[in-house]
Design goal:
Layout: H1 4-93, E1 96-99, H2 112-116, E2 124-127, H3 129-164
Antiparallel strand pairs: 1-2
């Protein structure tokens, strides 16, 4: 029969080999797992960088579009302000006249003579300075709002076109 020391030595060798193999296997598995994680992170980084580049390009195109639309809008608003000032000066100096004729609507069928006449007998009324300025201000405000709405529509249209394009 073999010596008890040989049996103990063999058991220690087998148990030591088992724990060494287990420790080495865990370490190798951990290294492989970390390598796979690093490869996945690198791939995700590449995809993220590509998407960020697309977003940056989209933002750049959108900013350029908005700047272009804003320049047109600002130019139109300046034109409205200049026209408003000119009309106010004209109204103050020369007066502002409106067609003051009241057409007769008692006749259900208009006569040929009435429909052919556009000035309804040429009756004109001069507006007071305050009334003329108020009307000019209302018209100018309406023009500014119209230009603002047009600019907003243009921005939305351009944004939708940019989203559709690849």
């Amino acid at each position: 029969m073999p010596s008890p020391w040989v049996i103990v030595g063999a058991l220690v060798l087998v148990i030591g080999s088992y724990f060494y193999g287990h420790h080495t296997g865990v370490r190798v598995t951990k290294v492989e797992w970390e390598a796979e994680k690093a490869a996945a992170a690198i791939e995700a980084g590449k995809v993220l960088a590509a998407e960020q580049a697309k977003v940056a390009e989209y933002e750049h195109l959108l900013a350029n579009t908005q700047n272009r639309v804003e320049k047109v809008y600002v130019d139109k608003v300046r034109t409205v302000k200049v026209e408003r000032a000119q009309l106010v000066n004209t109204a103050r100096n020369d007066g502002l006249f409106i067609d003051a004729a009241c057409p007769d609507h008692s006749n259900a069928v208009p006569s040929v003579a009435t429909s052919a006449s556009s000035d309804h007998g040429g009756t004109k009324a001069r507006l007071s300075g305050e009334a003329a300025e108020a009307l000019i201000a209302i018209a100018a405000d309406a023009d500014e709002i119209t230009h603002q709405l047009t600019a907003c529509q243009e921005i939305l249209r351009n944004e939708r076109e940019l989203r559709r394009s690849p």
